Amino acid sequence: MRKDATMNEWKKLYELATRIKELEPWENFWDVDIIGIQEGEEEDTVFISTLGRGGDCYGLSIYEGYEGLNDFLMLTMQERLNISVEYAMFSQNNLSCYWGNREELSEKQRSIIKELGYRYRGKNQWLYFMSYQSGYYPYNFDQEEVQRMIRYLTYLKDALEYYSHDNLTIDFEHGNMYLFSYDLNTRRWAGCERELPFTMYQYQNLVLTDEKLMQELCKVKKSKFVLEADIAYLGVSVDDKKYGRPANPRLCLLGDSLNGMILKADMIEPDDDANVNLAKEIIGFIFTYGAPKEIRVSNVLVEATLKQICKLCGIKLRRIKSLSVFAELLNGMRRY
């Protein structure tokens, strides 16, 4: 169950963020320059992106662990992956803080600032925090997220002071990061240059393990259908008491490319695996109407989901720039 942070916890978080703003990390780091904070295992490293070098939007995005780094790489490689900015943004899992404008804040965020006694004036001065979670709409921090952010910003403050004091230079352009880590031998924190664990987005193929299902797919009849398949976010905040925060539903889309008809536009539960849902829809179609001649997708993420199914059924899996069947629907969603 969701639990709100105490005002003392919010006070500590705002004090830390205010101190970091005074250090102006965006003067030394671009948004693609990663600061790593490692207090335990390497895979649990926290990766931090600093926003504001261009002067438009000041902030910090905190990505937890290797999965978090992968989310960051999805965002930076969005064009290469041929996914929309909206899909990349809504797929993020991170904790962020921003210095923005008053109208960007929710009523809850403004009330916290008022109770803490802060008075902000002008553009890009209002400090607020947002939690991003795939399948959900960006939302206010709960108590656990406030506590985690306090810990991360405490280490980040020390990391920035260390970086400035030691006049470190990092070759960010060649896949390195500034790592601030705890040495168990010396029992001290220190900063250094270190290679990122990986620099390309890591996508996974969906692998079927049911032998009987795979055998049945190999024997399925053929059809003349040409399908288009995709996954898209609805891009709206949906309140439901069973969730601890507003959901941002994803749509599992299936269309007939030959006649331009949308066959499926099923809404997926926030915590469900969208790729698994899409695979189930494709398999259901195959057993009902036969294996289509071709399935068209627009990005490598969906391609990886359907690769094994198509191989088993002898379906041509083709990646194209855009899917015409869903264009009107998705453009309408984005305008909305």
Description:
The chain folds into two domains: 7-195, no CATH class; 211-335, Nucleotidyltransferase, domain 5. The chain has ten helices and twelve strands. The chain has helices at 7-23, 65-76, 78-81, 85-90, 107-116, 143-165, 211-218, 274-289, 300-313, 324-335, and strands spanning 34-38, 46-51, 58-64, 94-100, 126-132, 176-183, 188-195, 226-233, 250-256, 261-268, 294-297, 316-319. Strands 5-4-3-2-1-6-7 form a seven-stranded mixed sheet. A five-stranded mixed sheet has the order 10-9-8-11-12, sandwiched between helices. α1 packs parallel to α6 and α8 (274-289) packs parallel to α9. The mean pLDDT is 94.
Q: Brief overview, please?
A:
It is built from ten helices and twelve strands. It is α+β, with helices and mostly antiparallel strands. The longest helix has 23 residues.
Strand composition percent: 15-25%
Largest sheet: 7 strands, mixed
The portion of residues assigned to helices is 25-40%
Report Rg: 23 Å
Strands of the biggest beta sheet: in what spatial order? 5-4-3-2-1-6-7
What is the residue-mean pLDDT, rounded to a whole number? 94
Structural class: alpha+beta
Count of structural domains: 2
Q: H/E order of the elements?
A: HEEEHHHEHEHEEHEEEHEHEH
End-to-end distance: 31 Å
What is the total tally of β strands? 12
Characterize the overall form.
globular
Quickly count the helices.
10
Contiguous uncertain segments of 5+ residues: none
